[in-house]
Amino acid sequence: TQRVTLVKGKNIGCVGSFYAVAKEAYDNYPGYDYYAFCDQDDVWLNDKCERACTALNKYPDCKYLLYASAYQMVDEQLESIPTIMLPSNKTFGESLIIQPTIGCTMVFNFNLLRLFVKGRPDGMLMHDSWMYKMCLGCGGTYLYDDKPTILYRQHGHNVKGGDQTFSQLWKQRLGNFLHNRRSRSIQAMNLLETYKDDLTKENKKLLSDFVACRHSFCKRLKVACSSRYKTVKLSHEMLFRAAVILNKV
Q1: pLDDT single digits (tens) 113-163
Q2: Cross-strand partners of 80
Q3: What is the pTM of this model?
Q4: Rounded Cα distance, 117 and 123, in Å
């Protein structure tokens, strides 16, 4: 039985590559129960797939299913290094502010894969951020496992790592705030355009309000004061609300 299929192609970047293999899976390997993203430099723990499938199998009647887990950060020699998890309310409004999980822990069903390939890679900031927002926005079920299932390797070639110090993290946040290229609102517009027929009524309204606020100070003030965009960490929330008011989302 063939267990591995190698798909060759040019380097088209992180998002484009993940989209390409997802499209390959959708076109040529449809109908499987579950699919997973995988980074080539990370290490899956032995029970990763078992834990994911056991959790997802508890929701056989849910149309869209997404599983993600905690992870243990390691160096290039697989030695453990301090790992900080981002707490989350797991709501669609919050997903427009933060991305609490990483793609290499994600496992999802075929219906969610079908939704994913409706998007365009040039409209996604990152594949995992898109998948997370898309699932919550379309009324899917998101399952988070607080037990690590992968060793998340950190080195100089990572597209995006998680081993930043406190000062580095805040320098990045402030830099994103001061030099924002409207990345949140652009992705929100792309989500709204792509899934206008799939979003729940409530989430479509929430997303529409978010997209429209960039053109009106009154609408920005309304979004900034709304409890629908609430995060667990006050620091994230305050930066987001300030960015909305100053039209930097």
Answers
A1: 999 999 999 889 899 999 999 999 999 999 999 999 999 998 765 544 444
A2: 74
A3: 0.89
A4: 12
